[in-house]
Design a protein that fits this description.
The protein is mostly helical. The protein folds into 2 domains: 2-34 and 41-161, no CATH class; 163-318, no CATH class. 65% of the residues lie in helices and 3% in strands. It has 12 helices and 4 strands, in the order αβααααβαααββαααα. It has helices at 2-24, 44-68, 80-95, 104-126, 139-155, 163-191, 195-211, 214-227, 246-267, 276-279, 283-298, 302-318, and strands at residues 40-41, 160-161, 231-233, 238-240. A two-stranded antiparallel sheet has the order 1-2. Strands 3-4 form a two-stranded antiparallel ribbon.
Length: 344
């Protein structure tokens, strides 16, 4: 019956959002971190079991609720909930350009495991209403639970190298940078001449696009047109009371970044050439501090600043030029290149 599959599809989508919420609930502004420098995978056993077992637990809970409220027919072939969950997650990752970040071998293993366990859980337990709750009365069951907990704890102490994960993230970063340079390099080169400042700009584009992909921005645009309230819009998520597209948001975002840089230079007296030599002795600290202040001017959240700085450094490293310009005029003592124009 079509209504059964409609409900099961809805439950599968709901599972997707529940698992995503659990996975990112600790981040203060709802962003997902994409740091380029994760070296080891922490708690691999937990991560594996969380991804595999969560849909199964959800399946048991949903089936029990449906049985309880008398909707037994909707439990028919309940394992389709897991299938719809997987299909929706796959579609979401592809639509939001996350394909290069995915470990496809591991994902296929997850999918096969989830579908297989869901199918056997349904046919062996859920299918019969009286079997929905497990039987823990026998000593052997309790013994096996203790054994499984011990194995889980042991496996969870293993730390797995994440070299391939780092490589996937670097490939993703290169791909997105290439995409944004193709679309917006004319604006970036026109408004900013400093290489480190350009890296900050592209880092913000990558990060905001990852967390606010085109689909999400389309929803934000629709909501803005309906409410008319001030909102963050476009690729670079600029706060505005007027409707703007992605390109306009990039233009405004670049202006904001460049003005923040000029403000920091002026505050530190670096707009006067005679002060440069005095500060060169602490060049590294000044570079780090200026970078942090510029990013914080864009978004003050600590997690945001950390992630953008991480991406900025990685993007700056990808620039193979022998004459890269920094925020702070170190090494060669050149006068800072402000970017944008000379008007405040």
């Amino acid at each position: 019956m079509i209504e059964i599959h409609i409900l099961q599809f809805f439950l599968g989508v709901l599972l997707f959002f529940i698992i995503n919420w659990i996975g990112r609930h600790s981040y203060s502004v709802g962003y997902m971190e994409i740091s380029m420098f994760l070296k080891v995978e922490e708690a691999p056993a937990f991560n594996f079991l969380f991804r595999i077992i969560s849909p199964i637990i959800y399946l048991f809970i949903v089936s029990a609720i449906l049985y309880k409220i008398g909707l037994d027919d909707f439990v028919t072939n309940a394992y389709f909930i897991s299938i719809y969950y997987i299909l929706f997650r796959l579609a979401f990752n592809l639509i939001t350009n996350r394909g290069l970040l995915m470990n496809w071998y591991r994902q296929v293993l997850y999918w096969i495991s989830i579908i297989t366990i869901s199918y056997f859980s349904y046919t062996e337990i859920i299918y019969k209403k009286e079997n929905i709750l497990p039987d823990f009365e026998t000593v052997s069951n309790e013994l096996w639970i203790i054994i499984l907990i011990f194995i889980f704890h042991t496996l969870n102490q293993i730390r797995i190298s994440s070299d391939k994960t780092i490589q996937r993230k670097e490939n993703y970063l290169r791909s997105r940078i290439s995409h944004f340079k193709e679309k917006y390099s004319d604006l970036v080169n026109e408004k900013i001449t400093n290489d480190k400042l350009k890296s900050i700009a592209y880092a913000i584009m990558v990060y905001e696009d990852f967390n606010r992909p085109k689909v999400a921005r389309f929803v934000e645009n629709a909501r803005f047109k309906l409410t008319g309230k001030k909102h963050s819009l476009g690729l670079m998520q600029v706060q505005t009371s007027d409707f703007i597209n992605d390109r306009k948001s990039v233009e405004l975002g670049l202006t904001k970044i460049s003005k923040a840089y000029k403000k920091v230079l002026k505050k530190r007296g670096l707009d006067k050439e005679e002060t440069i030599d005095i500060l060169l002795s602490d060049a590294w600290h000044n570079e780090w501090s200026m970078e942090q202040r510029i990013i914080a001017d864009y978004n003050k959240d600590n997690s945001y600043v950390h992630e953008i700085r991480t991406l900025t450094e990685k993007i700056f490293e990808l620039n193979t030029s022998d004459n890269k310009s920094y925020l702070f005029p170190k090494y060669k003592g050149e006068k800072p290149r402000y970017g944008l124009d000379e008007e405040e």
